Amino acid sequence: MAANPETMNEKITRFSLNGKQIEAIGDETILKAAERNGIEIPRLCYKEGYRPDGNCRVCMVEIDGERALAPSCCRKPTEDMKVNSDNERTVHSQKMVLELLLSDMPQQGKSPYTLNSELDFWANRYGIYDPRFRERKQPTPDLSHAAIAVNLDACIQCNRCVRACREEQVNDVIGYAFRGKHSEIVFDMGEPMGESTCVACGECVQACPTGALMPARNVGLVEPDKKVESVCPYCGVGCLLTYNVKDNHILYVDGRDGPSNHSRLCVKGRYSID
Amino acid sequence: MGRILDQKALAEVRNLLGDEPRTRDFLLEHLHKIQDTFHHISNSHILALSAEMNLPMAEVYETATFYHHFDVIKEGEMSPPSLTVRVCDSLTCEMFGAHELIEQLKSGNNADIRIQPVACVGRCQGAPVAVVGKNAVEQADQAKIMSAVSSKQTEAELPPDYLGFEEYKKNGGYKLLVDCINGKHKREDIIQTLLDANLRGLGGAGFPAGKKWSIMREQEKPRLVAINIDEGEPGTFKDRYYLERDPHRFIEGTLIAHWAIEAEGVYLYLRDEYAGCQKLLEQELALLKENPPCELPPLFLRRGAGAYICGEESAMIESIEGKRGMPRLRPPFVAQVGLFGRPTLEQNMETMHWVREIIEKGPDWFASHGRHDRKGLRSFSVSGRVQKPGVHLAPAGITMRELIDEYCGGMLPGHEFYGYFPGGASGGILPASLGDIPLDFDTLQPYGCFIGSAAIVVLSDKDSARTMALNAMRFFEDESCGQCTPCRVGTAKAVNLMEQKDWDMPLLEELARAMEDASICGLGQAAPNPLRCAIKYFPEEFE
């Protein structure tokens, strides 16, 4: 690693994770350093490239000398810190958080709106299938938008869509309103999405880990038979994208990380092709 | 799509805001103006306010809907009746019949008033308590409440007997501050005095005040001071008690802190439930500013809007900044990155109340009090089944039985001491058999409890720990900010489980453990204390 010219001038922090000595480079968080060292820590509200928010509490780790657990997506290690992500205590919290979130999914099971739910992935990884808690009172679907289906019964309130809309695209349409168990993702002042000032950039759909925000008409439930990497044909910015194709028809479009768009797209690149 | 700005609403908002700043930190203040004027906040006013303050409407909406005291109404929705009667149903008030009172009031055919069960309003010595508009009614019953309604007694009054600015000065007030500013005291000496006196943060965490001040002196300038008067822990009313009697004492303490840490501004955050104190502080701060004993720093009084969580130090800062009161992750600590990103000294109001007296009388005076090897004085807010509920200033380390016998005039007739909350809803519940342990910071942890803000609720054989634990969990469910999973979902699931005839104790313990370990702030971390104590100390209630 030391030979990598991009990182050779960065500060190195040595710490131990699960008894193994590892290094964090520069400003890396515990989660990032762990990932680079092949140690997997579950996460939901964390999304690569976004500001980590530390609200889902799935990625909790134990730090020697600290009373409570810490979110590894936000915490940076310090020299000689002793961190544990897989002992009985941390796994207990990680699993309990997954179970709590799963208990509030439709039918307390897999997301009915996407084949790639991150919650389903982690619940499966930890073998959590039958949550022992009662399901919340579920909100009704909002299918008012031409391009995006809103099913907040699959929402885990990780607030990735808020960060997508507010911090990544600076459209400021999505908010997190009310309080406690009544907290809810809203558009503008609680309007149906289709009546809000949404410009349909689709960033929130791309950000949502559970399919609560998805392309309309359930195309997210179709397995594409190929993915074609391409460049958006509209303006000259040159946003990179991926076409999800089935039977030679474009199902839906994902933003791809490129120098000019960092996985973001606008309404044209996202929704005018499928 | 989107909405068209209503010109009438915009004119109304502009008129209400006058020439006050349009910066984000004034958002709650401005929302209060709309709520006070129209008794609700309509979407057209939110849109107008967002235009006027140059904020996205989603951010104004999410902030307004976070706070209980803002009634946000969409087009076509009924606005609430112009008069709201809030009836407290937290611990002590439930013990004294709040639920029955709420039922009576609701069945009383009062279409023009709204009856709203609310969390602790900080008057537990007078339980049950109702607040008619802004007028607090203690030992409330239907007749008292309806008489206040019909005679339109809906405003908060100034406290009956307080030491005003002139009186306070006559009694030597602000002399110490002036001496400090004129160099008669050294900053290091003042801080050392607080350390020697062992004055600890009295909001609940008990962090030594002197240590906090010296940490602040190591932080970069500019620094700020923020005083927490968001006393919301059920059972706590000591801050109100001192504020209503001697408001300048804590202001002087605060200004001394401001001088000692060389800060550049003071924010006072007062809970909205204390409308009488709001009036009093506005009046007394104006008198102080008119005739300052020395040069004063910028001094702002900010009003909460009904949110227990804003008593959490970082949530209070978010709220002062005009946002949803959601606690921040630490590190960084408030002392490093606090209000408006500046290093901030945040202290509970009562902590500041003691500064002057400790410096005047010397550290030994304060530390000379105490029992059972503990040092200092504690202001116990006592409510429940005792003869003399109220704030009792007693030695740190006093036991529950001593407190009841020596300060509270014993138990109420016909009531036998059964158990107690030593530190409000979050501090857990102890049985009478543990009535002889010293009450102080650090002494209750071995029992799964803490003293917190020293809010004692005394239970008798007529009460049930199990019922009170459920009351506490419902409170946390209502007051959770909704940010993190263990608290937002955990409190709701815990309430579900605790409403069952048979508690699933192993599952509750599994849940409690994750809430304690993985919640962002003290609310979620401490929320399981009462439930764990009920199971541990009152097993006969589950047989």
- Poorly predicted spans of chain A: none
**Largest sheet data of chain A:** 5 strands, mixed
Multimeric status of the protein: heterodimer
Strand order of the largest sheet of chain A: 2-1-5-3-4
Q: What proportion strand of chain B? A: 5-15%
Portion of residues within helices of chain A: 10-25%
User: What is the largest interface, and how many residues per chain?
Assistant: A-B, 48 and 50 residues
CATH class of the domain at 10-86 in chain A: Alpha Beta
Strand order of the largest sheet of chain B: 12-11-15-13-14
Amount of beta strand of chain A: 15-25%
Shape of chain A: globular
Shape of chain B: globular
> Count the strands of chain B?
15
Distance between the ends of chain B: 60 Å
Query: Could you tell me how far the N terminus lies from the C terminus of chain A, measured between alpha carbons in angstroms?
Result: 42 Å
Number of strands of chain A: 12
Structural class of chain A: alpha+beta
**Any idea what the CATH architecture of the domain at 10-86 in chain A is?**
Roll
Topology order of chain A in helix (H) and strand (E) letters = EEHEEEHHEHEEHEEEEH
Query: Which value, in Å, is the CA radius of gyration of chain B?
Result: 23 Å
Low-confidence parts of chain B: none
